[in-house]
Amino acid sequence: MAKHHVTATINGDAVEFLCETHQSLLEVLRDELGLTGTKEGCGTGDCGACSVTIDGRLTCSCLVLGVEAQDKSIQTIEGMAAGTELHPLQRKFLEHAALQCGFCTPGILIAARSLLERNPDPTEEEVRYWLAGNLCRCTGYHKIVDAVLDAAREMRRE
Predict the structure, then answer these.
(1) Do strands 73-75 and 3-10 pair parallel, antiparallel, or not at all (unpaired)?
(2) CA-CA distance, 52 to 111, in Å (whole number)?
(3) Do 80 and 90 touch, CB atoms closer than 8 A?
(4) Residue 39: CB partners within 8 Å, gap ≥ 6?
(5) What's the predicted TM-score (pTM) here?
(6) Which of 21, 24, 25, 151 has the lowest tally of Cβ within 10 angstroms?
(7) CATH label of the domain that carries residue 60
(8) What CATH number corresponds to the domain at position 121?
(9) Reported confidence tier of residue 70, pLDDT bands at 50, 70, 90
């Protein structure tokens, strides 16, 4: 099967890859580029585990073809920290124990960052609404919401 040459920017770095027409962006990220922080949960866009941003828009990478990444800017969980310095959301998730098994955490962090980039002062209801597309089977969401709200407070002070 013919492969397509794609150039994109991923986590601020220019990237080139080859992919087959049917490969999802999720498959490309994990299998071709070794960016395994983005997880496959459902494969149908219902769980949010594969959340990334494409040109600033929160997206389930399982629903996008790799060839559609051409000339796009993609942010994954691997690009969230600045070197060894965790993003405030990552730190607050640790401080609030807002994770258990951690499988859903990368997608939730990406979604939460996307929210705070649009709305730096969300209400609890807005956080819950924004994260509704991310399923977690372990935590019950309360600590996640608290961590996002705490991170938002800290980020507004910076």
Answers:
(1) parallel
(2) 8
(3) yes
(4) 49, 50, 103, 104, 106, 107
(5) 0.96
(6) 21
(7) 3.10.20.30
(8) 1.10.150.120
(9) very high
